[in-house]
Write a structure and sequence with these properties.
68 residues, alpha+beta, two-stranded parallel sheet, elongated
């Protein structure tokens, strides 16, 4: 049996987490935008811009990325 104190502690730790859904198809389109093939730097920039948009208005330390 799970202890109530453990459940409360777990709820406290997980409270406030914010989901940012990352759709695989959308991610593919975002990474290809601007043309392919591309450099590593270009791909990183595209990914970072997309993540910035996904997490805008959310506290970075509380965001959890979910691949859908």
């Amino acid at each position: 049996m799970i202890d109530n104190a453990f459940v409360r502690a777990l709820q406290e730790v997980l409270s406030g987490l914010q989901k940012a859904a990352l759709d695989a198809g959308e991610l593919r389109a975002v990474l290809a935008r601007g043309g392919m093939p591309c450099t590593v730097g270009e791909l990183e920039d595209r990914f970072k811009r997309h993540l910035t948009g996904l997490t805008r208005g959310k506290e970075p330390g509380k965001v959890r990325i979910v691949l859908e």
